[in-house]
Write a structure and sequence with these properties.
Order of helices and strands: HHHHHEEEEEEEEEEEEH
Organism: Tritrichomonas foetus
Largest sheet: 12 strands, antiparallel, barrel
Mean pLDDT: 68
Protein name: Tubby C-terminal domain-containing protein
Region (Disordered): 67-109
Length: 329
């Protein structure tokens, strides 16, 4: 009887609620659903609070239900940071694998090599690092002068030939090499005294220590070049060259450099006191003489030096004998 009464009372309560909701225009089905949702939310919040309190009390970190926001680590200044590499798909990686292998500069320090550098800048910096008096900086023309002694029915003749590469430029021949007064210079491979067509006349005096180049008209024509050899206290032969007409870029006077500073650019040179470098007043190398054999010289000269001047200098080196130091009285 008690159960039946309780059911009746519950049904009466439901009827009263539904009737009251109906009076106010409220849908009972929607109201009951919202009430159930609110009850479920309150129950879930209570369970969450209980679980979190229990985890805090027991010292456990339940990471499945609680998400902690970790503080961001301190980063370096923006200037020192490097951008992160862009992510690529598998197709992009396969497409750019060859280019990355050929142009992989990730291991190069930016402080050592700048991306703006190129070959022309490197070449220019290399040229600027070479001193002005070095043979590698100033491009010179290379000559070769050969001496050839021939014996014929008319006697012995000494021939001198100047070559630029394989091209013969000037030629002369002498009956004797001592106490020579006049040396006539011809063009090409041969010289004929009957033609009287000379490129120049070289005068020698004082036991072949002083030389003077004159124009092609006669031995008493206009003087073009003088060469003088002397002995210095440094136990070396001193050579001085004077150009009478200062048409060259380096001035009128040239003199030899000290033997301690001779540098022929790694070329094989026979040890000789006739190996010398002629430089101007600014210590720039103009002419270099190098003996490669007993009867052959290499001469490197600036382009502003005339070919016949180079030939005259080579003849003077062959004719001049080794000087002796002056006798002290």
């Amino acid at each position: 009887m008690m159960k039946i009464n309780n059911q009746k009372t519950s049904e009466q309560h439901r009827f009263v609620r539904s009737s009251s909701f109906a009076l106010y225009g409220i849908n009972t089905s929607e109201s009951t659903g919202s009430l159930l949702l609110s009850q479920n939310r309150t129950n879930s919040t209570r369970n969450f609070i209980n679980e979190s309190s229990s985890s805090l009390i027991l010292g456990h970190n339940n990471t499945q239900n609680i998400y902690h926001l970790k503080p961001r680590p301190p980063t370096s200044p923006r200037l020192n940071r490097r951008p992160y590499p862009k992510t690529q798909s598998s197709d992009d990686e396969s497409r750019d694998c060859n280019s990355q292998s050929e142009n992989d500069f990730s291991n190069i320090d930016d402080d050592i090599i700048s991306p703006n550098l190129n070959d022309s800048f490197l070449v220019q910096s290399l040229v600027n690092s070479i001193p002005n008096n070095n043979a590698l900086r100033n491009k010179k023309i290379s000559y070769r002068i050969n001496r050839d002694v021939k014996k014929t029915f008319f006697g012995k003749r000494t021939h001198f030939q100047l070559l630029k590469g394989s091209t013969p430029l000037y030629h002369t021949k002498l009956k004797k090499t001592k106490n020579v007064n006049q040396i006539f210079i011809g063009r090409g491979k041969q010289i004929h005294y009957k033609d009287q067509d000379f490129a120049g006349v070289l005068l020698a005096c004082r036991d072949n220590t002083n030389f003077s180049l004159r124009d092609s008209r006669s031995a008493y024509g206009e003087e073009i070049l003088t060469i003088k050899y002397s002995f210095k206290l440094e136990k070396q032969v001193w050579c001085s060259v004077c150009f009478m007409n200062s048409y060259t870029d380096f001035g009128r006077f040239l003199c030899t450099r000290s033997n301690a500073q001779l540098d022929f650019g790694g070329r094989l040179v026979k040890p000789s006191w006739k190996n010398m470098i002629l430089e101007d007043s600014n210590h720039n190398e103009i002419i270099a003489t190098m003996q490669v054999s007993r009867d052959s010289f290499y001469i490197d000269a600036e382009s502003s030096v005339n070919d016949i001047m180079v030939f005259v200098l080579g003849i003077s080196l062959f004719l001049m004998k080794k000087l002796r130091p002056p006798i002290k009285i």
